[in-house]
TrEMBL record, chain A:
Family per similarity comment: Belongs to the peptidase T1B family.
PANTHER family given in the database record: METALLOPROTEASE TLDD, PROTEASOME SUBUNIT BETA
Role: The proteasome is a multicatalytic proteinase complex which is characterized by its ability to cleave peptides with Arg, Phe, Tyr, Leu, and Glu adjacent to the leaving group at neutral or slightly basic pH. The proteasome has an ATP-dependent proteolytic activity. This subunit is involved in antigen processing to generate class I binding peptides. Component of the proteasome, a multicatalytic proteinase complex which is characterized by its ability to cleave peptides with Arg, Phe, Tyr, Leu, and Glu adjacent to the leaving group at neutral or slightly basic pH. The proteasome has an ATP-dependent proteolytic activity.
Source species: Champsocephalus gunnari
Organism ancestry: Eukaryota, Metazoa, Chordata, Craniata, Vertebrata
Keywords: Cytoplasm, Hydrolase, Nucleus, Protease, Proteasome, Threonine protease
Localization annotation: Cytoplasm; Nucleus
Subunit (UniProt): Component of the proteasome complex.
Annotated protein name in UniProt: Proteasome subunit beta
GO annotation terms (biological process): proteolysis involved in protein catabolic process
Domain of life: Eukaryota
GO molecular function: threonine-type endopeptidase activity
Gene Ontology cellular component annotations, sorted alphabetically: cytoplasm; nucleus; proteasome core complex
Boundaries of every Proteasome beta subunit C-terminal domain copy: 238-268
Catalyses which reaction(s): Cleavage of peptide bonds with very broad specificity
UniProtKB/TrEMBL annotation, chain B:
Protein name: Proteasome maturation protein
Stored Pfam families: UMP1
Protein family: Belongs to the POMP/UMP1 family.
Cellular component GO terms held in the UniProt record: cytoplasm; nucleus
Alphabetically ordered keywords of this record: Chaperone
Organism: Champsocephalus esox
GO biological process, one term: proteasome assembly
Amino acid sequence: MALSNVLETPLPGFNFDNAARNAALEGLYDGGQTPKPMKTGTTIAGVVFKDGVVLGADTRATSGEVVADKMCSKIHYIAPNIYCCGAGTAADTEKTTELLSSNLTIFSQTSGRNPRLVMAVNILQDMLYRYHGQIGASLILGGVDCTGNHLYTVGPYGSVNKMPYLAMGSGDLAALGILEDRYQQDMELDTAKELVRVAIHAGIMNDLASGNNIDICVITREGVDYIRPYQESEYKDRNMKYRYRPGTTPVLTKKVVPLKLEVVQESVQQMETI
Amino acid sequence: MNTRGLRSQLKDSVPVAGLCPQGAYGVQDSLRSGFTSVKNELLPSHPLELSEKNFMLNQDKMNFSSLRNIQGLHAPLKLQMEYRAARQIQRLPFLQSSNLALDTLRGNDESIGFEDILNDPTQSEMMGEPHMMVEYKLGLM
């Protein structure tokens, strides 16, 4: 269909044509009943230990006051040696990390090198600063590369922080309390996993928007161990299998009619078992 | 806010269709673009609209000026000459051109951004009217 009012093809990328219409519509709904995007009101945390990095996250995604996803995956794959936890708007964290992962894959294939964590952080920082916070993604990136074990956080407006232990999300204060108290340099793997577990647990206990299970991801020079779920919540959902036990519906009558079959032809084929 | 100043700032950058009237003599063309409202014309309604329209231009300006400061005038001159040459390899305005040379020069062939996913012109369901678009491009409209 040829439109006669289009004089130049629209530029690719974001299209802001509906922004004026949305602003006008928002005034029409009393009390703001516009649908809310799904947020991962979250607790995410990360810790650097002797041989690598441990990342942890809860698994609850909320949409307003309703739990939208009880087993949401907040630890995203970026590169074989880099993983990223995401808090904020669920779609934004998902798509931003996918874009980052694609860009790093292209880079590693054209240059023949493994991506470094600083490259991922710089790409994210440029992208998030360009959109001035409209992309609501707070991310904790952790990974092991040729320069060592690193843990960075990138805020939604593009701020970057490099620390040996970090927590983000709505439950970050509770998790940070645990991390501040018990973090030590050069911990062993089990101590680090336990520390992250306790930190996320504190976030789950003290924050409404975090809950359900705890996922842990351990990144070392040898490889990645993504344990999902590391700890399941005690409050399980009802059984999701809808199979009824025999006898649920009463049997009223039963009629058995045997089928009379005659053997017409019989042939034997030998199977070759090699 | 000085509205005339804002309008002149808008004119210096890429012509933004919808923010400046498109009709003859700078008057809003109600037949093609619909009714106007003063508020819509003065300010873009989304905080990112202006910065996104001019993003490529501003990046280029920044890069060329720092290149000029580091390497001298010849470096941005040569690059801009190549950009101009690559930008001329286009199809007619209503058809999509691949911009392969321009993308390679800019480095866009090795990165994926929102402009490759959202609102992809090669997959747009609408087409512009060929005659009008060519006339607009040639400045006959």
